[in-house]
Design goal:
There is one protein chain. This protein is α+β, with helices and mostly antiparallel strands and about 325 residues long. It folds into 2 domains: about 5-150, no CATH class; about 175-315, Reverse transcriptase/Diguanylate cyclase domain (Alpha-Beta Plaits, 2-Layer Sandwich). The protein has helices at about 5-25, 30-55, 60-85, 100-110, 115-165, 175-180, 205-210, 215-230, 255-260, 265-275, 300-315, and strands at about 195-200, 235-240, 245-250, 285-290. Strands 2-3-1-4 form a 4-stranded antiparallel sheet, sandwiched between helices. A hairpin with a 4-residue loop joins strand 2 (about 235-240) and strand 3.
Length: about 325
């Protein structure tokens, strides 16, 4: 096949691609597609100039310059489309300076040699560099999008894990969070935690629910959680253990000091409940405290604190016999 025929076929093919891209722009709103359409249009003009240059011997330097510049401009617009697609970056006025070396090379290159094959080898080397830039631009965009997606997935996972481990009423941790804590020894994590555990029970939640409604009962539960947060430290952990029960882990705090802290709870409730709940309601708490030396013996410490709590609660309710365990 004659080279002019092959070049003519390329011109027609690129022109059809240009028209197709232009039609796609009406239905696909994409700045990247706009740059790529302009790139195909420049390539069409460039190939047409080369076709004419092969047929018009006297105009070859000028037409070759148009051909070279058209392909460089096409490559630069293709890079711009890749940047827009990958990095959501548009062209600015300063990017026009990249046209200067393209103009210089396009004007000088036709006079380097009379053999077009030599000129084309130099030209192809320049184009290969430009298209490598477009490739790495796309890869950088893909890398950033993957990193952004992974970061969002990690944030979503952390939020879901937080929601799974949090009691929605009091924003305290729940039993799921507690059991996750107990699984640390099984996974080989630090087990040398020590401190005190307190088990708390609201003495009169059922009468509040029965006489004032569950909405007031929920406010009473939140009031206990709020009062408890005013007593614990930042590293301590507050769990909603059941309907009217809470559990508090106070790390590296001896049992006597933990007991002194918890004993202030009823006083705080007495002073603040009316303001927190919005009506005059008496809320009191029974509690038990026990010490633990590691997470492995935390279960036994909770049983001891639970027994002590039941003893105090039964005393408050006027029950002389402590249930057997």
């Amino acid at each position: 096949m004659d080279s002019n025929v092959g070049l003519a076929i390329q011109c027609v093919g690129v022109l059809l691609i240009t028209l197709l891209s232009n039609f796609m722009r009406s239905s696909i709103k994409s700045n990247a597609l706009r740059y790529w359409t302009a790139s195909w249009a420049c390539l069409s003009v460039s190939l047409l100039s080369l076709f004419l240059g092969f047929r018009l011997a006297g105009k070859q330097p000028l037409l070759y310059s148009v051909y070279f510049f058209g392909e460089y401009l096409s490559a630069l617009l293709f890079i711009a489309g890749c940047r827009c697609q990958a990095l959501d970056a548009s062209l600015t006025r300063k990017h026009s300076y990249y046209l200067l070396p393209a103009v210089v090379v396009a004007l000088v290159l036709p006079y380097v040699s009379r053999n077009f094959n030599v000129l084309f080898m130099i030209h192809a080397s320049i184009l290969s560099v430009l298209f490598m830039v477009s490739y790495f631009t796309l890869m950088e965009g893909v890398r950033r999008k993957v990193e952004t997606t992974n970061r969002k997935l990690l944030e979503a996972r952390d939020q879901l894990e937080l929601l799974v481990q949090m009691d929605p009423l009091t924003e305290a941790l729940n039993r799921h969070a507690f059991h996750s804590l107990l699984r640390r020894p099984e996974s080989g994590q630090e087990t040398a935690s020590s401190g005190s555990v307190a088990v708390l029970d609201i003495d009169n939640l059922k009468p509040i629910n029965d006489t004032l409604g569950h909405t007031t009962g929920d406010k009473a539960i939140r009031a206990v959680a709020r009062a408890m947060r005013s007593l614990v430290r930042a590293d301590d952990m507050l769990f909603r253990w059941g309907g009217d029960e809470f559990l508090v882990l106070m790390f590296k705090l001896p049992q006597p000091e933990a007991s002194r802290r918890i004993e202030k709870l009823n006083q705080i409730l007495e002073e603040n409940c009316e303001r927190w709940i919005g009506m005059k309601v008496t809320v009191s708490v029974s509690f038990g405290v026990a010490g633990f030396t590691s997470l492995s013996d935390l279960g036994q410490a909770i049983e001891q604190a639970d027994k002590a709590m039941y003893a105090k609660r039964n005393h408050v309710r006027g029950i002389s016999r402590v249930p057997a365990f």
